Amino acid sequence: MLFVALALIVVISTALYVYKNSHKNYWKKQNIVEYGDVVRKFVLGDRSLGEVYKEAYDQYPGEKHIGVPIGNKTGLILKDLQNVQSVLAGDFESFYSRGIVTNENDILSDNVLFIGDYQRWKLIRQKISPVFTSAKLKNMCYIIERTASDFVDMLKESENINDNPFAALYTYTTASIGASLFGIDTQVRNTMDSPFLEMSRQVGEPSIASNFRFFVSNLSPTLFKLLKLKLLGDHEDFFIGVVKKVLSSRRSEKVPVNDFIDMVIELQNAGTMRDNSSGFELEPTDELLAAQAFFFFLAGTDTSANTMHFTLLELASNPDILKRVHKEVDKAFESNEKITYDVIEKMEYLDMVVNEAMRKYPPIGSLQRECMKDTVLPVGNVKIKKGMVAVIPVFAIHRDENYYPNPDVFDPERFAPGNIDRLPKFGYLPFGEGKRICIGARYARLQVKAGLAYLLHSYTLRYKKYSPKHFEKSFFSLRDSKAKYELVLRESL
User: Fold this and answer.
1) pLDDT at 209
2) Which CATH architecture has domain 32-492?
């Protein structure tokens, strides 16, 4: 082990020196400003990567783009929204890959979020997308409603809910996604008793090990593959085992539940998956579809918990907004026995509040796309070569006063129906945009709004101003899981 550790130190140190000098002054020669080593700043700092990109973004207010080295690649931070649109949508064939390195033996990473092979990604996305149609979500909503109700029951039984409110939210999002994937376990009294909770926390929470793996994958894909590192390998045996067990049980029961497993069985019964436009084919194996199920945990538990968390932090800071949310939620519960899909969709002000929370604290702080063939950005006529990385600094764009006046002010009116058309095109990116926009965006909104509606029907928040200095050290997310607010039962007031 000592030899391996020393070898890693030597290899990484050498790679750092090589990539630092190989990228030096590349963009300056193209008359484009250059920023420092963002990977080094992130690794040695105490902030999220999204904040590091924002620092670069804010340092050059008059520029349209900023050159940066990213691992062993040349990167470009995009500031002009026309170029953002080109990368995410207009020139998608040049930028379809996220540029995330995975190994063939990492089964759970072979999902729609990480896949860089265009044909595989396209076919799998085509087959998975029907899970999130309005009709499917309506059928699934009873599961979300039940978990949201159980979430509040869990809080009422807890004596220390204010010690770690984020953990409670994480329990809800994990249980909700788990039940939506595999159905409600009739053997448990409360759906919050989820077997997936510990796994979800390990996946979602930034750690030295996870940050190291992503650091190596960016710094040296060759080294990453040589070491056979797995981004998600720690959870393979458990998760794939669960999927196989549930599939076996459901096939024998043959009772429709309207969850993800039902869709998996439909796909497998239909036989080989085929893209009619290209002829590309894939077998819908248990392992392949387990990876897609794992994607929901990977993309949904932490991001949805963070969205709810930041929404509550801002509601605690803004009593007038909180009062208006209470009024809308109470009216919904007075008129309906259960909070159905249609009821949640009609909660217009809660929707505005959640949208503003995701504007101010986007679930993913930055996006990246690897260039797959030489191309040119429309604004500035910048040549992007194959292998370069385009960075969309979401957090920075969402806090840009040119797009959002008084960006640090929490103002849900930005998302009022009459103001929606004024939002900057491709300037609001909580779920990304274009063909790789988050496939579960509608599910996430439903889950978040249902959880908040049930919570705020029973609880209110004591006033407390929230002013974070920075966020947790994460390659992807904006997180502040230790931040607190005080939940108070409304019936006790």
Assistant:
1) 64
2) Orthogonal Bundle (1.10)
